[in-house]
Write the structure tokens for this entry.
Amino acid sequence: MKIQRTIPPSAAPIDRKSIMTGLAGVFSPQRYLEKLEDELRGYFGAKHVFLVSSGKAALTLILIALQSLSPGKRKVLIPAYTCFSVPSAIEKAGLGVSLCDVDGKSFDFDYRSLAKELTEDTLCLVPRHLFGIPSDLDRIRELNSKHNWYVVEDAAQAMGGTYKGRKLGTIGDVGFFSLGRGKNITCGSGGIIVTNSDVIADAINREYAALERPRIAESVLEFLRALVLAIFIHPSLFWLPSGLPFLRLGETIFYKDFPVKRFSGIQAGLLRGWKERLEQSNRCRRDNAQYFMKMLGMKSVCDYALPFLRLPIMVENRQIRDSIHALAQEKGMGISLLYPTSVNRIEEIKDLFKNRVFPCASDVANRILTVPTHELLTEKDKRNIIEFLRGSVPCATHERTRVHPAADIRSSI
């Protein structure tokens, strides 16, 4: 364990006032929950909001509800490179995982392949806004206009982001967000479901009504976790949790089982002032990403700046990627890996795919690095990251990559 300033790869601070209102949520849970639900409905313009224990719990609940509306359909189509929690939730819901390769430049679906992967057994598509980069929802809606597949927006990394003036998570049939640590805002854990469909909301509510409420002991433990997170997420102290292997920070885990419960009053209390916190967080991420892109010679022709949860960079090969990452870890730079494999290579479920290959998804898994963009970065941190990327591994190259249908990024180091 090395005592030094250590930048977390992604972070969403919880301030002291939020800690205090989180504690108050123990005594008045319904008050805080109802207030938060009202605020979320207003912010997203959504008729229906459901609060649950995690983002993967939110997706699980959505899928069970949708399957009850289309009982003959059992396949959920997702990008072949995505968070392991997504296939984990599909398995938890008792449904089948279908994969479509990704576009190696946008990280979105490979739309040349997408239509071929959709079948009569497809229940829904799950486009995901990786890093806050919107999927091409126009193409998805056009493809879906002649069929009755559901579109479930995975906006876990994109809360507060927009697509052509509309809030991400509200454009498909139903969407969900994550409030886990390291997302745009956090209360330690939690998930949000939003929909404007009365039919889908009724189906979700049938499942939601039966969900267990968190016990007092669980809520107190959640509060203590949030308190520890609030203290140790700061770069001056993050060296401690990052140096404890048993915490498994930074690991991508396929959860074989996980709780699907309601949100707690403590969690609702911890989200005091969440709209202002979210706006500040996304503004910092947007500004920091623009700074890194400018200083690294990465050119964007996008007509707006994105609030990247983390800034993705594709390097030449896995060997270079791993050498950069190892050195960055040693120096506490916060430069990190993402998901270690494509979904078809996840150990727990790889037998489902009968040796199918998804070459672009595998290529992204081998070459991607991410740069922190959160609000805990100081000006000195940002300069140090730039100097590190420019000088530590001179052979690294960043090839042309599209981060959005309307934006090109080009970089070379």
